[in-house]
């Protein structure tokens, strides 16, 4: 819903260019304005494939016209909504290269993040049980990086607040994955490996909801490794920060 509202704003401001794609030569008789307006109509009616065809034709026939940048931004959105994140990402990157100082380049950075954004890792595991160590978390890391890049480069962008919320979400997913790996190692009695994963959560994701469990796992690992002093210290940290923790 948020994405559609943001894009509607872009259209209203006459914002929006096109990555190479096989165009529809049947639209050659229409003017650039007519093709662009047709694409907008398709987008508003959620006919994204038709919009992509129009925008493709617009770029092929009028590559340097006044609608070049507008059509590129529209194409990013149309690809994303048509469930083609790879093309949306490629088009966003192309737009950034072509128009690095464009007044709406922040939208391209935002869409790069959305194109990599995925469901939480723990949610996927409900339907596709797997060893946490075998999950591909690279898309999650990349999405976080893209959103962080937007926040850093354009702190006043209207997309910052949503990007920050998604970064929190992604960071929690990454921390959860580390906890899952730590549990797997612990179950296999690989206590050193398990402790390292717990420490990763505490060092890299200290402000996530996984911190409490990471301290618990780390304390248990120290106990198994015969390190009572470190076990006690870790338990004290857990008790201090989470006095009502179920792990105590």
Question: How would you describe what is shown here?
Answer:
With 248 residues, this protein is mostly helical. It has a domain at 1-92. It is 69% helix and 0% strand. It contains twelve helices and no strands. The longest helix has 28 residues, at 160-187. It starts with a helix and ends in a 7-residue tail after the last helix. The model is unreliable at 12-25 and 119-130 (pLDDT under 50).
Briefly, what is this?
The protein is 69% helix and 0% strand.
3D shape: elongated
Number of strands: 0
Number of helices: 12
The proportion of strand residues reads under 5%
Radius of gyration: 24 Å
Distance between the termini: 42 Å
Mean pLDDT across residues: 86
Largest sheet: none
Helical amount among residues, as a percent range?
55-70%
The ordered string of helix (H) and strand (E) elements is: HHHHHHHHHHHH
Main traits of this protein?
69% helix, 0% strand, 12 helices, 248 residues, single chain, elongated, mainly alpha
Task: Provide the fold topology.
Elements: H1 2-12, H2 32-44, H3 48-61, H4 68-81, H5 85-98, H6 105-116, H7 121-127, H8 138-153, H9 160-187, H10 191-204, H11 211-224, H12 228-241
């Amino acid at each position: 819903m948020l994405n559609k509202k943001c894009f509607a704003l872009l259209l209203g401001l006459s914002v929006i260019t096109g990555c190479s794609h096989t165009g529809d030569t049947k639209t050659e008789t229409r003017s650039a304005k007519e093709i662009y307006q047709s694409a907008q109509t398709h987008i508003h009616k959620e006919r994204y494939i038709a919009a992509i065809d129009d925008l493709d034709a617009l770029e092929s026939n009028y590559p340097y016209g006044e609608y070049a940048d507008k059509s590129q931004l529209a194409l990013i959105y149309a690809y994303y909504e048509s469930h083609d994140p790879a093309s949306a990402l490629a088009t966003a990157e192309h737009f950034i290269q072509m128009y690095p100082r464009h007044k709406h380049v922040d939208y391209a950075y935002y869409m790069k993040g959305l194109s990599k954004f995925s469901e939480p890792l723990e949610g996927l595991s409900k339907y596709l049980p797997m060893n946490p160590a075998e999950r591909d978390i690279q898309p999650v890391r990349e999405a976080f990086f893209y959103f962080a890049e937007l926040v850093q480069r354009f702190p006043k962008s209207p997309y910052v607040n949503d990007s920050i919320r998604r970064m929190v979400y992604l960071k929690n997913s990454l921390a959860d994955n580390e906890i899952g790996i730590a549990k797997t190692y612990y179950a296999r009695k690989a206590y050193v490996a398990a402790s390292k994963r717990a420490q990763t959560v505490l060092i890299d994701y200290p402000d996530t909801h996984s911190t409490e469990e990471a301290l618990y796992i780390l304390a248990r690992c120290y106990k198994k490794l015969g390190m009572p002093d470190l076990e006690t210290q870790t338990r004290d940290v857990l008790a201090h920060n989470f006095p009502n923790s179920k792990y105590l």
